[in-house]
Amino acid sequence: MTKQRKGIILAGGSGTRLWPITMGASKQLLPVYDKPMIYYPLSVLMLSGIREIAIITTPEDQAQFQRLMGDGSQWGLAFTWIIQARPEGLAQAYLLAGDFLAGAPSLMVLGDNIFFGHGLPEMLARASAQETGGTVFGYRVADPERYGVVDFDADGRVRSIIEKPEIPPSNYAVTGLYCLDGTAPAKAAQITPSVRGELEITALLEIYLAQGTLTVETMGRGYAWLDTGTHDSMLDAGNFVRTLQERQGLQIGSPDEIAFHQGWISPDTLRARARLFGKSTYGRYLHALVG
């Protein structure tokens, strides 16, 4: 019997690129317009139908995350909290979450990434339907040298993924969203640290690629991928969310709305959540969903 896919949010790290604003709080707890940053990657997992989620944090920040998010039951979810004592690369997340996954496939999202686009749930469903191998998502960027970059051959097949290349072979960066099968922790255990002393996610993906089981799905013009790792990109993300919400009158990255539409919480639960947020814009929005 196929195991249900589980979710991972990697929300560790020290956020030194955002100092001094992250010296007292985790980057993923900072606001992106009207919601905590972590709400946005959480919403991606929820849109893919995932309800069992491991949240990986630093020891210092975990209590703040738990104060914000609880055990997940308010959204019909179940959270498992995992400590990352030292940030030693993105692939380390699969070692830390090995017991939680227990052989199940996973969808991991980085805690500072925001995804938006019509058709996102369908794209995630296609990736999740693959029982073996892995899928990552390529997004066209103007500055690929900052990212892990996909190298395509003449027929559009993936040859390699190169971390921060001086001369990028394409403009497609690998986003912070990884849909991998249940062998990911075992594969991550095979990786040796890079010269940076980290277990690189590109090294893990190269194992899948060498086995012929890695798919790269490119995200087209209708999608937005925002990496909020710098002050400028955080401001850009906040303005992006504000503009769309003000224009459409719809929330982006609302776990409460998604849980309600997924049927994971009742109208009464949503009303109680709306009362909790009081007269804030977010609270009024939730109240309007159920009247």
Automatic annotation (TrEMBL):
Its EC number is 2.7.7.24. InterPro entries: G1P_thy_trans_s, NTP_transferase_dom, Nucleotide-diphossugar_trans. It catalyses: dTTP + alpha-D-glucose 1-phosphate + H(+) = dTDP-alpha-D-glucose + diphosphate. It is an enzyme of class 2 (transferase). The keyword Protein biosynthesis does not apply. Pfam families: NTP_transferase. This is Glucose-1-phosphate thymidylyltransferase. It comes from Roseinatronobacter alkalisoli.
